[in-house]
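Hi R.,

As promised on Friday, here is the backbone we talked about, encoded as structure tokens. Could you run it through your design pipeline when you get a chance and send me back a sequence?
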């Protein structure tokens, strides 16, 4: 057992054998399950901070941190000053009810956000119990053996045991902007942090190379943990939409204060009681501000995040929810996004023969055929030599578990090579036992190759794999039946043409080569002997063609930007109908022929293409920038560390959840849990629905509130009896505003949204046409209420209390049926997106019960000064309250024609 006080204080100064002994771990086997459990108890979780859930009391207190609430409190105090205790208690009751609604919705939204954060935990690869496993980084403990590659974020402090061409970005820890090269040499104990080149530190990232290290510090015992400020509360996130809503609310507060003050003065001038005039002014100011707006907006966004998460789209930044609906261009990778990313080795092109390989996926059964017949023994010997290189020049892991089970960890292409080799009885562990690895030259975007050095007898054999054009350029010989033969230009061209043919058939192609040397520091890519080519089939995902068709209908353009071969990318794009025969030659381009810096029009050619192959990270970034300069809202997918700049630059960066690096995920706004392009299309559709829902309930709330202002203002200016009393306004604002608005906020939307063009990215939430619509709806409700009160007084000869009850109920029911004016299709009267929303019907039913209770419950009726309007009164209410619903479509058409 080891304790914190027994951990090495300067692991960079200790030789690996002594360090491993102190940590009691075998680097090949890793820790045992019992050791891990004990060390979790001793050292705790590998986390810098514990994000505590927001306390119930804090959420409740937030309901009273609002200028509107203080205005209501002021009205309550003012009522006490004028000895109107009943009104004071009623206002306090309204405050309590409003706080309960706000608390309930915000509590659910906050809990939803906290649960979503837990979905995005970082994963890391470790050796435990003699096996390679992928675990949550929170579960790392001192002594764990971690395997890391370029693109990953380091999850704990590591002392390096193995490394190959390793380079780390430590700017997050040290502030040093330049990448740091790493080595294995032991350093003095007093070496400064910035010079500890045999260490990797938590919170930093790997720019290139691969490494194996032992964990020497986790959580608060890491270097980052020692200097990090512990933040014990969840950090809030304010989206651009929330900022716009808050700014709008602040402007309305000042506008309504001015308007309310003026209205109070007018009321006093026409002879109203001063307290009543002041109370009306405050109530109107409150009615004009939709208090439920932040609550409903938060709930709508949180509900949208949950819907997306259930469909495998994990939102990292809340602002992505609202931006998704405006996306009009998607730069998408091919492998794993448009295709299944389940590579299967199907073709081996030897210099003298072509071998077809049977089987699919993780199947270990598969025959090797040449020209439809089982391959000859001589061909199989060449296949075995080639597959040895494929297995040894490889960083994936394929292990047998039990009689029939397999565990597979690593890149899909490398796994396909291991599976293909296993079909010939070649397993990585057995080969490494006979030919141990000495060093590795990691794959880089510049070389497009990787190499391993393996001891073979008294010599060293270098195994190389990579892009055909890169490997062939460094080959001087080709394997033949007599050993090796010189690789002349004609043979080189023939082999390159064969690679192009395989790519045109939709295969991903790699070349494999070897070179025998007598020392391990030899140059890896010199005088290579080509063994052959291998081709992998990665079938398109099911449903992709339909998703592409949906994008076209929705006005969203797709550009496939891939590092793969042009012929392979074109084949897949044609098969998916992304590229059609009529698009011409410019539809698919090889990015190697484009230089954005020097070639005039190169960027325009790329932006007008549908397929851009062999694209570099810099070119991807430049394409995103140019599209944004043209006014496009760009979504981009990526999985590697080199994709991170473009992912961050894009309006919506989308990282792959299954094969994406930690750096890519941190740069992204959304993570695809299933790496599927169809999920992006679903997320865009949901983004449109969420934004449309928010716009609907904002229009609904503002039109209802404006009608209340117009009703009381016009009555006050005319010196007529008030159609609505202050407490009645507060009741309506609470009942008929919040519940239907909440129902609109969680609606599933109209299927026609994906048949519309994307909204402009800079479009305001409420444009001129929306304000016109709000005004038109408010006028309709105002006419209905003032008309009903006039008829109640002059036609039905109701007394004041009954007449006010008629106007109160007319407005309440008019606002309830007004919710159906927010349907997408004004011509669909009965079957539409609003009538299909079960929450709308539930809200209406609840509001009707509350309205009837306000009229018929003695206590409520006394407080609100309401009386039974009788049968004639209810007929009048039903008739007049239906006017906004009946004439709403006409108002909508008039506004559309005017705007």
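Update: got your reply. Pasting your designed sequence below so it's all in one thread:
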């Amino acid at each position: 057992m080891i304790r914190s006080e027994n951990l090495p204080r300067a692991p960079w100064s200790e030789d690996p054998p002594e360090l491993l002994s102190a940590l009691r771990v075998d680097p090949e086997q890793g820790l045992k399950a019992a050791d891990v459990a004990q060390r979790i108890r001793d050292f705790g979780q590998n986390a810098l901070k514990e994000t505590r859930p927001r306390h119930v009391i804090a959420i409740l207190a937030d309901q009273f941190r609002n200028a509107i609430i203080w205005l209501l409190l002021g009205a309550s105090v003012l009522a006490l000053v004028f000895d109107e205790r009943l009104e004071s208690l009623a206002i306090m009751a309204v405050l309590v009810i409003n706080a309960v609604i706000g608390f309930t919705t915000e509590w659910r939204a906050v809990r939803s956000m906290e649960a979503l954060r837990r979905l995005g935990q970082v994963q890391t690869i470790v050796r435990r119990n003699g096996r390679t496993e992928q675990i949550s980084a929170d579960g790392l403990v001192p002594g764990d053996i971690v395997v890391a590659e370029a693109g990953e974020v380091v999850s704990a402090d590591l002392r390096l045991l193995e490394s190959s061409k390793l380079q780390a970005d430590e700017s997050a820890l040290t502030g040093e902007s330049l990448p740091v090269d790493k080595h294995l040499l032991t350093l003095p104990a007093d070496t400064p942090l910035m010079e500890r080149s045999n260490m990797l530190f938590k919170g930093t990232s790997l720019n290139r190379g691969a490494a194996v290290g032992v964990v020497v510090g986790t959580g608060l015992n890491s270097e980052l943990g020692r200097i990090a400020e512990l933040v014990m509360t969840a950090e809030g996130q304010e989206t651009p939409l929330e900022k716009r809503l808050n700014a709008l609310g602040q402007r309305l507060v000042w506008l309504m204060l001015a308007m309310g003050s003026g209205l109070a003065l007018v009321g006093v001038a026409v002879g109203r009681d001063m307290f009543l005039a002041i109370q009306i002014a405050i109530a109107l100011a409150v009615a004009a501000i939709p208090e439920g707006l932040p609550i409903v907006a938060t709930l709508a966004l949180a509900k949208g995040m949950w819907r997306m998460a259930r469909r495998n789209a994990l939102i990292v930044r809340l602002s992505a929810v609202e931006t998704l609906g405006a996306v009009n261009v998607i730069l998408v990778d091919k492998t794993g996004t448009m295709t299944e990313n389940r590579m299967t080795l199907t073709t081996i092109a030897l210099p003298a023969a072509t071998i077809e390989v049977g089987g699919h996926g993780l199947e270990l059964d598969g025959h090797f055929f040449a020209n439809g017949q089982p391959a000859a023994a001589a061909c199989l010997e060449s296949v075995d030599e080639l597959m040895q290189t494929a297995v040894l020049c490889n960083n994936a892991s394929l292990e047998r578990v039990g009689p029939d089970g397999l565990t597979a960890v690593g890149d899909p292409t490398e796994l396909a090579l291991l599976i293909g080799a296993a079909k010939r009885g070649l397993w990585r562990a057995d080969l490494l036992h006979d030919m141990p690895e000495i060093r590795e030259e990691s794959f880089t975007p510049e070389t497009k190759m990787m190499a391993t050095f393996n001891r073979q007898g008294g010599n060293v054999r270098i195994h190389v794999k990579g892009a055909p054009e890169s490997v062939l350029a460094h080959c001087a010989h080709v394997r033949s039946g007599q050993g090796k033969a010189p690789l002349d230009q004609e043979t080189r061209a023939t082999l390159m043409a064969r690679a192009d043919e395989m790519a045109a058939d939709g295969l991903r192609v790699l070349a494999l080569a070897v070179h025998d040397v007598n020392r391990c520091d030899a140059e890896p890519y010199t005088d290579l002997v080509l063994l052959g080519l291998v081709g992998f089939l990665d079938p398109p995902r099911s449903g992709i063609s339909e998703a592409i068709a949906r994008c076209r209908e929705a006005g969203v353009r797709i550009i496939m930007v891939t590092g793969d071969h042009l012929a392979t990318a074109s084949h897949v794009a044609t098969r998916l109908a992304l590229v059609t025969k009529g698009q011409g030659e410019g539809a698919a381009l090889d990015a190697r022929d484009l230089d954005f810096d020097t070639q005039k029009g190169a960027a325009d050619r790329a932006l007008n293409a549908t397929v851009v192959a062999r694209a570099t990270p810099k070119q991807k970034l430049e394409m995103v920038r140019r599209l944004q300069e043209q006014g496009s809202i760009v979504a981009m997918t990526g999985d590697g560390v080199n994709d991170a700049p473009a992912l961050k630059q894009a309006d919506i960066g989308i990282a792959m959840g299954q094969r994406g690096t930690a750096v890519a995920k941190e740069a992204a706004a959304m993570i695809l849990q299933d790496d599927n392009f169809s999920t992006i299309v679903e997320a865009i559709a949901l983004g449109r629905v969420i934004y449309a829902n928010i716009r609907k309930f904002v229009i609904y709330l503002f039109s209802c509130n404006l009608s209340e202002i117009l009703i009381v203002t016009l009555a006050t200016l005319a010196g007529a009896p008030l159609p609505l009393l202050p407490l009645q306004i507060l009741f309506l604002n609470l009942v008929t505003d919040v519940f239907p608005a909440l129902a609109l906020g969680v609606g599933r939307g109209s299927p026609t949204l994906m048949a519309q063009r994307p909204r402009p990215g800079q479009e305001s939430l409420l444009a001129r046409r929306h304000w016109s619509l709000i005004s038109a709806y408010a006028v309709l409700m105002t006419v209905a209420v003032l008309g009903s009160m006039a008829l109640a007084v002059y036609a039905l000869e109701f007394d004041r209390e009954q007449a006010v009850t008629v106007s109160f109920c007319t407005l309440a029911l008019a606002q309830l049926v007004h919710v159906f004016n927010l349907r997408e299709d004004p011509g669909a009267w009965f079957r539409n997106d609003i009538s299909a929303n079960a929450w709308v019907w539930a809200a209406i039913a609840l509001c009707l019960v509350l309205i009837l209770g306000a009229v018929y419950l003695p206590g409520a009726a006394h407080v609100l000064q309401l009386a039974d309007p009788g049968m004639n009164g209810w007929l009048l209410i039903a008739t007049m309250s239906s006017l906004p619903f009946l004439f709403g479509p006409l108002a909508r058409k008039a506004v559309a024609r005017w705007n």
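One thing I noticed while checking it: Confidence is low (pLDDT under 50) at residues 229-238.

Thanks again,
M.
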